Amino acid sequence: MAVLVTGCAGFIGMHVTRALLARGEHVVGIDNLNDYYDPALKHARLAEIGRAGGEFAFHQLDFADAAALEAALARVEIDRIVHLGAQAGVRYGLEAPATYILSNLVGHANILELARHREIGHLVYASSSSVYGGGTTLPMSVDQRADRPLSLYAATKKSDELLSESYAHLFALPQTGLRFFTVYGPWGRPDMAMWLFTDAVLAGTPIKLFNHGRMRRDFTFIDDIVDGLIRTLDRPPAADGSAKPGGSRGPHAIYNIGNSRSEELGRLVSLIEQATGRTAIVEHAEMQPGDMTDTFADTSAIARDTGFAARTSLDQGVPRFVEWFRHHHNR
Question: Which of 104, 178, 186, 205 has its CA 20 to 30 A from that of 12?
Answer without folding.
Answer: 205
